[in-house]
Amino acid sequence: MSLEQEIAKRRTFGIISHPDAGKTTLTEKLLLFGGAIQKAGAVKSSKIKDHARSDWMEIEKQRGISVATSVMGFNYKDVKINLLDTPGHQDFAEDTYRTLTAVDSVIMVIDCVKGVEIQTEKLMEVCRMRSTPVICFINKLDREGRDPFELLDEIEEKLNIKVRPLSWPINMGKNFKGVYNIYEKSLHLFTSSKTTIAEGIEVKDITDTLVDDYVGENNAKQLRADIELIEGVYPEFDVNAYLNGRVAPVFFGSAVNNFGVKELLDAFIRLAPQPIPRETSVRIVEPEEKKFSGFIFKIHANMDPKHRNRIAFLRICSGKFERGSNYFHVRQDKSVRFSNATAFMAQDRETVEEAWPGDIVGIFDTGNLKIGDTLTEGEKLMYTGIPSFSPEIFKEVVNMDAMKTKQLEKGLLQLMEEGVAQLFTYELGKRKVVGVVGALQFEVIQFRLKNEYNATAQFVPQNIYKACWISSKNPQKLAEFVDSKQRHIARDKDNKLVFMAESRGWLQMVQDNFPDIEFHFTSEF
Fold it and tell me: Which residue ranges does the record assign to the Tr-type G domain (predicted)?
């Protein structure tokens, strides 16, 4: 197959939502449809024995939450789908932000009982920054939720995006009868099945009395009234407005009961964009270009605890990736060869010989790669838009076992390069402070240091408001600033200078007093 045909076959997307909206469950069901797994295992349930396939880390099994982003590839109706399941918990937001840089579109899961929550708003802002196309899936219709029209209004208002329902629920909760697919004009009756797939009934005309026979007279009447209202209030669905990130098509269903998922997937492969052009420091790169290029958006150490390995996740942006070829590592300005490249099916993985734009490939790494690195066939360009954000919570690392200092240093370094958190080392006294977006991160770091590196550390809270990356057009002024504020100057893992501000007011004062110094809240400037 030609490069163009391979590109046209691919869809790469992320699933985002607030914790507990049913994101990992939806992921499972999508894999079920793709034939990638035979049986779905719910994430939190004593009845269903299998743990969800995409949550493999020990701590995830204990807690029932997704901590790391999982990458899965599967085929559906001759389309190769690359799915990135992100952690919904806000303590792992940084990982999610970075994952969103590697996808071409997003499915957002919203709980019909709770509606739009704060975390969803934050994620949507990141999608907005990049005009990422979004499809909404309103989940959990088998529970008594809020009025669907009310939910649509809330999405428009809070997420600042126009919506267009492409399917519509017939009642909800105990009386949930099913969903009418407006996009394909067919009726899907609800049968509660957690592990298998049911077929829909085609209803070409909603005025047909068949509808009454299936869902009852009152429900049918209500459905016709609702559809009429939708057609009156919402403009015709415009695919280009969706692709530009201006309109979000909305689907309804119940992922745990496997309901409404197939309609979502069928519409998704028809609507969602194939791999898109990407910005670099030099120019925009088109996926159809013959020469390979791609970037690392995530690094995961110790995916297999028995073997100390690091896997770097590479998003391919142009050309064809071939295993065993030499590629140019732009940051290190040298040629590297990857003899081992894998594709993922959650925990299972297979070796890949070749991969195309849109694909995500795992590369075994001995420590050469960092998040944000670009690989090309020789051209010196860097993919942009993969920043580190200033953390919210800071704690000093205290080693509890002097005999294990080396293990602790190595563990910290590897976990930081993975992007779990950020490490700041003070110039004075070499104190090490870890900054995270959410408190749960510290537990994960402590747990992994102990289990994977056999190192014991305590974390002592610090009185720090923000870590600001600093720069100046005047090197002398920068040196003077660093001198005068030595106690508050640290370096990040890339050796960039960081000013550790203790309070908002104090930061404001310092900014006023040193007009030549620029303070940045993300590492990309």
Answer: 8-278
